[in-house]
Write a structure and sequence with these properties.
The protein is an alpha/beta fold and about 240 residues long. It contains seven helices and 15 strands. It has an eight-stranded mixed β-sheet with strand order 1-2-3-4-5-6-7-8. It has a seven-stranded mixed β-sheet with strand order 9-10-11-12-14-15-13, with helices on one face. About 40% of the residues are buried.
Length: about 240
């Protein structure tokens, strides 16, 4: 897939069957250096976008998505928790896709999304599955992992792709779409510098719940997506928390 915005470097790459990573590199304020924002498109009978991106990124993300399908075909606009990079452009996407609805956890629908979205959300309970056609996504409640009461993650079961949000956040431009290299080391080093985890007492149990789904691809919101023994990597992250 091409770089779709030569000025900003936004690009789209297929990381699993029918699942596309849209990546935009940015420079953080001050001396924080390079960073990236990813959205994930599942192209199917009922296409789903996971993470909307910031409102300021919307034109570039929409242009990239258009290399795979028209935005108007979207049926689900999903995200992990209520934060600008997760859902800042939610209403822009809902305007572009008149048959789409927000897809989020029950708590997010109750405390935020039911009020701010221009269309009522579909609220998912822990373990609930949604068929998109060839693909099926399953919602996992992960309160306060890595942060926010309403936090949750999605697993695409046909490809074993865990849409893992802010877990395994890596610094840098993340121009490699899919890697088998170590991402735990860089993500833990970044977490030590910028402590964005809530330190929930339930983190270990929640990570084990995700590990038991046995993901084969981890679709990170910031940094490269990763391919390999996802259960093992999630358990390794849990061990880091226990130190």
């Amino acid at each position: 897939m091409p770089v779709t915005d030569n000025h900003y470097g936004t690009r789209i790459d297929e990381i699993a069957e029918g699942i596309y990573r849209i990546n935009t590199p940015v420079t953080l304020p001050g001396d924080a250096g390079a960073f990236s924002f990813n959205q994930y498109l599942i192209d199917d009978d009922e296409p789903l976008l996971f993470h909307t991106g910031l409102r300021g990124l919307y034109p570039r993300v929409r242009e990239a998505l258009g290399h795979v399908m028209p935005a108007a075909r979207l049926r689900h606009v999903a995200f992990s928790h209520y934060e600008a990079d997760e859902c800042g452009a939610l209403n822009d996407w809902l305007r572009a896709a008149p048959h789409a609805a927000p897809l989020c956890g029950t708590v997010a629908a109750l405390v935020s999304v039911g009020d701010i979205a221009i269309r009522p959300p579909r609220a998912l309970v822990d373990g609930e599955a949604v068929s998109l056609g060839r693909h099926t996504v399953r919602w996992f409640d992960t309160p306060h992992l890595p942060h926010a009461w309403e936090c949750g993650l999605m697993m695409e079961e046909h490809t074993g792709t865990l849409l893992c949000g802010d877990l395994f956040t890596q610094p840098g431009r993340a121009e490699v779409a899919l890697t088998e290299d170590d991402i735990l080391g860089p993500s833990e080093a970044f977490r030590q510098e910028m402590d964005y985890f809530s330190h929930s007492t339930r983190a270990g149990a929640l990570l084990e719940k995700l590990a038991q789904a046995r993901p084969r691809t981890l679709a990170c919101m910031h940094g490269s997506a990763w391919q390999g023994d996802g259960a093992g990597l999630l358990r390794a992250l849990s061990a880091e928390f226990a130190r």
